[in-house]
Amino acid sequence: MKKTRRFHITTNSNHFFYKSPNLLKELEIIHAEQVFVSDITYIKIDGGHAYLALVTDAYSKKIMGYKLDNHMKI
């Protein structure tokens, strides 16, 4: 019997679409609220799934904002 995965693959980094350059590669982050980063993750919930979007302060790692919803529309 084939074993099912306990997770969904939601990212494909090996694509031919445009990839934005890393604008922070040479930047020294020295204080809070200098740089914010964001990410979206997929969460399995009872009866379906949800998306969690986070905005994080890159220096302090503090979550500055978030949104949890069942779609990725604005």
User: What separation lies between the terminal Cα atoms?
Assistant: 41 Å
How large is the radius of gyration?
16 Å
The stretches of 5 or more residues where confidence is low (pLDDT under 50) are none
Number of strands: 3
H-E order: EEE
Number of helices: 0
At a glance:
The protein has a domain at 36-69. It is built from no helices and 3 strands. The chain has strands at 36-45, 48-57, 63-69.
Verbal overview:
The protein has 74 residues and is mainly β. It has a domain at 36-69. 0% of the residues lie in helices and 36% in strands. The chain contains no helices and 3 strands. The protein has a 3-stranded antiparallel beta sheet, with no helix packed on it. Strand 2 and strand 3 form a beta hairpin. The chain is extended and about 50 Å long. The relative contact order is 0.20.
Secondary structure: elements and pairs:
Layout: E1 36-45, E2 48-57, E3 63-69
Antiparallel strand pairs: 1-2, 2-3
Overview features:
74 residues; three-stranded antiparallel beta sheet; mainly beta; single chain
